[in-house]
Design a protein that fits this description.
With about 190 residues, the chain is an all-alpha fold. It has two domains: about 90 residues, Rna Polymerase Sigma Factor, Chain: A, CATH 1.10.1740; about 90 residues, Arc Repressor Mutant, subunit A (Orthogonal Bundle). Helix 2 packs across helix 3. It is elongated. The chain starts with a helix and ends with a helix.
Length: about 190
Amino acid sequence: MSTLLEKHIVELLQERNEKAISLLYDNYGDTLYGVAHKVVRNDELAQDVLQESFVKIWKKSDSYDASKAKLFTWLFRITRNTAIDKLRSVNTKTDKEIQIDVSDVYNLGVESIKPELIDVKENLQKIEGKYQVVLEALFFQGMTQQEASDELDIPLGTIKSRLKIGLRELRKIYIPATVLVFIVGQFIVK
């Protein structure tokens, strides 16, 4: 059985009256924050989850059906699901962080090249600017592809294309040098 307060909040939500959010926050905010915090185990993330949850609650207010669930159960589910999504998002972002040992920037196809002996930044200046910017962001600023996309305001697909082309252009610079080192090395060995 719903309380009068719950009924009033539901009516305000259905009328799209902003007072509903204030009442929800005042009456359920602390409890929903606790739900979020239990999942994400971080104060700042829990605050983000609570805010995102209230936005979702507002946007989905017309989907609430009192015959299927109590108001709190509905609020709880939205908050808990938002917290789980946030936790997955944070974990995925952490998993996608650039790891230089698995990065393709130094994997030029020739094992005799030692990255510490090559001035990559200097050679980066020899390729077109749009590729320089992407490679700089990904490999020297440590951004993920998504972060570079957001920071540079370039679509993610374009970031990926420019990365691929930029690496190919760098290979064109390094492979002739490697062949020369190999040929000179062969003459010295013989």
